[in-house]
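Good morning C.,

I know you're traveling, so I'll keep this short. The sequence:
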Amino acid sequence: MAEWSFLTNHTRVLVLIASRPGIRLRDICTHTGLTQMTVTTIASDLAKAGYLTKHRVGARNFYEVHPEPPLRGANDGHQIGELLRILLDDRNAERQDTAP
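The tokens, ready to paste straight into the viewer:
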């Protein structure tokens, strides 16, 4: 049976950027197993759709996530920020549960 996921690659990349605004695209590749080209394309897609803005600071890129745009594919008025809060709260809870 083929592997599948509830979260799209776009969501996975956006969650990583939201949790670490200064994350390098190559680090996203390491976390997700996606290629550099795929991650670059996804970051560009997210920026074009208004979900994030890339800021250059020196030699690094930093990303600002915009929680207001609608959640794509949901016709009920939900915003991407709602999904990010749920996913990031779960990550923060996991970190607290495993903290010494």
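Safe travels,
E.
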